[in-house]
Amino acid sequence: MVYHNAGASVWLSLALSPFLAASPALARTVGPRDPVPDGFHAAPYYPTPYGGWLDSWKDAYTKAEALVSQMTLAEKTNITSGTGIFMGPCVGNTGSIDRLGFPQLCFQDSALGVASADNVTAFPPGITTGATWDKSLMYARAVAIGKEFRGKGTNVHLGPTVGPLGRKPLGGRNWEGFGADPVLQAKAAALHIQGVQEQGIIATIKHYIGNEQEMYRMYNPLQPGYSANIDDRTLHELYLWPFAEAVHAGVGAVMTAYNAVNGSASSQHSHLINGILKDELGFQGMVMSDWLSHISGVDSALAGLDMNMPGDTNIPLFGFSLWQYELTRSVLNGSVPVDRLNDMATRVVATWYQMNQDKDHPRPNFSSNTRDRDGLLYPAALLSPVGQVNWFVNVQDDHAQIARQVAQDAITLLKNEDNALPLSGSSKITVFGTDAQVNSDGPNACLNRACNKGTLGMGWGSGVADYPYFDDPISAIKKRVSDVEFHNSDSFPLIFDTPADDEIAVVFISSDAGENSFTVEGNHGDRDSAKLAAWHNGDQLVQRAAAKFKTVIVVVHTVGPLILEPWIDLPSVKAVLFAHLPGQEAGESLTNVLFGDVSPSGHLPYSITKSATDYPDSIANLRGFALGQVQDTYSEGLYIDYRYLNKQSTPPRFAFGHGLSYTTFSFTNATITPVTTPLSLIPPARQPKGSTPSYSTALPPASEAYYPDNFTPIWRYLYSWLHKPEADSAHAIGAAGTKKYDYPDGYSTEQKPGPAAGGAEGGNPALWDVAWEVSVVVTNTGKEHKGKASVQAYVQFPEGIPYDTPTVQLRDFEKTGELAPGESETVKVVLTRKDVSVWDVELQNWVLPGAATEAANKGYTVWIGEGSDRLFLACRTEGGSCEEGLEGPGA
Ligand SMILES: *[C@@H]1O[C@H](CO)[C@@H](O)[C@H](O)[C@H]1NC(C)=O
Ligand SMILES: *[C@@H]1O[C@H](CO)[C@@H](O)[C@H](O)[C@H]1NC(C)=O
Ligand SMILES: *[C@@H]1O[C@H](CO)[C@@H](O)[C@H](O)[C@H]1NC(C)=O
Ligand SMILES: *[C@@H]1O[C@H](CO)[C@@H](O)[C@H](O)[C@H]1NC(C)=O
Ligand SMILES: *[C@@H]1O[C@H](CO)[C@@H](O)[C@H](O)[C@H]1NC(C)=O
Ligand SMILES: *[C@@H]1O[C@H](CO)[C@@H](O)[C@H](O)[C@H]1NC(C)=O
């Protein structure tokens, strides 16, 4: 989402808008269904499946039905839309039904902490969390985030982010998610959702789907958003995977993407929302638009959207909406069936009940619009009442410790020649680079962190939070070592005396990215200008330091991969630490590793190639400007990141999953056990759908839409009422039933039984049956250092199956506790039926290719190791034995 502050882009779109915004109709930039690019097809899927047919949501739906059945037409439409941007304390604020005690719901950024608020924790972003490969930390961080969202009185947390998945290294928002692999994203997202929702906060998985680059993502009156053209199998096996796991984890909300998929905008894509999300994945919660991406009223409702955020058309601040009063009209005139509106309202209310928000849920006690105590209650109204908007509730508790642990355990040691690390602390240290010290203007000086000045703790855009303070690396280093010299510059000094042999240089470099609503140093969200080089001539800074010093340690704060070739093999570049994006706890988390209090235990959540062109054009490059709709075709299919490099036998510089330690580990005594046997070719037949709430489908009387008598509106606030003459004339059209809406092709109002691949939250429940369990003993074989090991399990499909599959694919991971030298821990990883299946496009189901061949259920190899290129242990499902000391199958 964008525009949560009165930032530059809002005023930019205002400059464009006076003539366009004069009529809300003109804000609608597409027809009922958009044209579809060659070779791709956005098949219609109607109607929207009713929510409520699953036991796991039964109680919430029963309560919701009781409440919704008392609502008038204008009350139902009031709760399916925001009341307008900057029309309340949060980035999104729905209407309320005061009569029935249903409050305005507060929707708030971001995935890493409460955005635009004081006294919160600025946690490390998703990419850093992914780099820990530690499920307990993923969960602990989420619990803390959920508590802070609750403490500030929000209802809906706009996270986690798993789209972008990280297909393009240059993509601007990859750092908000957990890494370039569907399983890493999925497991982290599921734990995030669990942790947040246990605090009674609705989590939102986003952005659904194909939002793999920032540039040209949005629809505007002159150009549609780009089209991500994705084939069905690639969608299921890569991009949909984390969304399916999120639904399986019970996520309450899904946010659609700005871009189109197969030519059709995500916010009105019936195949994606009605078909895949609500029928195949059985999603019972609410689907919201991304901020200001709502471009059709009737069509988006029919396609399955339930919530328009923040309520405006895609040109905000003029008091126009395609829902609210227009949705009221669309129901009265018969275009949107009453039962669709009932389902929309029920989904919203059921999600609220599902998280127990009917019981003592706090109200917002902060404002996104100002940090002052008092402020405008409705800033977009211009003439707004003023009152207290910030109560400065401190929600930080002891969460800094969790933030620091995540930042620390994410730090990834890529190289460590001659055991240069850990540092003893006795040698003189010279620190280079502006990235070592907090922004001298203050850590929050740049709106939405849209600058790269000082230590880079997070990317920019809506996915940020304000730092309550910033623990920077240079302060933490100075606490450890008395003899520190700091050059707060990204240029190496022109004159520099040759240091003594034992002096150490620590060079800080960075690479930033963010959301397309801001341009930073020529980068339009994506890294379109800097590409994969360090910013501020950082590569040259390392080279210059390496020319003078015998020992150079490089610390990298980055949103994603960089090309390290300019210096990685220089003899004096002894060690490299990727500290990713540490959030507020950048200092001590780093020195704990630098000086050996702990061993580094992070592992790369993406591959680092030797050259950008080691990937095909479709991955390596951003799609540039085109007349009409920019096309982003996923021609590489399943082959992104290590899947592609393995297929091409292109060794990366550092592989996905790579990460060194100060100690070493052995993986021994592995066993593989079949759990659910035998497994059939396809999952057993699903259960039929359970019952859903039922309401009268009669056209509501026009009077349910009338403005109340003597009502004084707030200027430009979005209301769900119509003036009497408008309501009456819409009702006349609906009652006559003669003037028909121009429905999209394939439109139908008949509920379907649901596809075979569905049946429960996330899909057919048998997909989560455990197929095999692998256990392995991990031992710290070092002499000196304690350390945590990452255990990664990759599946290799059987030979000779009729499906092309990547060489290996991550399927599970675990991290050990801190093991002392000689200490062991037994670790278990599991493979579910889904983990050993492929999506069969013809059958429209998950198929077990191991069962399709003669050797039923056989021939899978489960590779275990410390990285996608360090898989030295293999367990075979055929024969059930495990073998050590192998050379893995990777590039
Ligand atoms: C996109 O088009 C391809 C090719 O027709 C099809 O396999 C896929 O299901 C479509 N996906 C969506 C989301 O419409
Ligand atoms: C819609 O919500 C707004 C904001 O809470 C409220 O002022 C208005 O009365 C609500 N309308 C209806 C129909 O309840
Ligand atoms: C803010 O939230 C807290 C709970 O964290 C609650 O006790 C308090 O009443 C809220 N303040 C306001 C002004 O609503
Ligand atoms: C009903 O109202 C909606 C919203 O204004 C409009 O888009 C639609 O065309 C109308 N339908 C008819 C049949 O007039
Ligand atoms: C945090 O809350 C305290 C009161 O607990 C307040 O004095 C302080 O100003 C707040 N911090 C910020 C940055 O607003
Ligand atoms: C591993 O297995 C061997 C025998 O195969 C046994 O001697 C050893 O104790 C086992 N180690 C652990 C840690 O279980």
Walk me through what this model shows.
- This protein has a 6-stranded mixed sheet.
- Helix 6 (135-151) crosses helix 7 (182-197).
- The chain is globular, with a radius of gyration of 27 Å.
- It starts with 7 loop residues before the first helix and ends in an 8-residue tail after the last strand.
- It is α/β, with parallel strands linked by helices.
- Among the domains are: 400-606, Glycoside hydrolase family 3 C-terminal domain (Rossmann fold, 3-Layer(aba) Sandwich), CATH 3.40.50; 665-685 and 766-883, Immunoglobulins (Immunoglobulin-like).
- The relative contact order is 0.14.
- Helix content is 22%, strand content 15%.
- Strand 27 and strand 28 (882-883) form a beta hairpin.
- It has 21 helices and 28 strands.
Question: What is this structure's SSE topology?
Answer:
Layout: H1 8-16, H2 18-21, H3 58-68, H4 73-78, E1 92-93, E2 106-108, H5 126-132, H6 135-151, E3 156-157, H7 182-197, E4 202-208, E5 227-229, H8 232-239, H9 241-248, E6 253-256, E7 260-261, E8 264-265, H10 270-280, E9 286-288, H11 298-303, H12 325-332, H13 338-354, E10 374-376, E11 386-388, H14 399-410, E12 412-416, E13 429-432, H15 473-480, E14 484-487, E15 504-511, H16 538-548, E16 551-558, E17 573-578, H17 588-594, H18 617-620, E18 631-633, H19 641-647, E19 665-674, H20 724-736, E20 770-780, E21 790-796, E22 809-815, E23 824-832, E24 838-840, E25 845-847, H21 849-852, E26 861-865, E27 871-876, E28 882-883
Parallel strand pairs: 2-3, 3-4, 4-6, 5-7, 5-18, 6-9, 13-14, 13-15, 15-16, 16-17
Antiparallel strand pairs: 1-2, 7-8, 10-11, 12-17, 19-20, 20-23, 21-22, 21-26, 24-25, 26-27, 27-28
Helix pairs in contact: 3-13, 5-14, 6-7, 6-14, 7-9, 12-20, 14-17
Bound molecules: 2-acetamido-2-deoxy-beta-D-glucopyranose (NAG) (6 copies).
One 2-acetamido-2-deoxy-beta-D-glucopyranose binds next to helix 12.
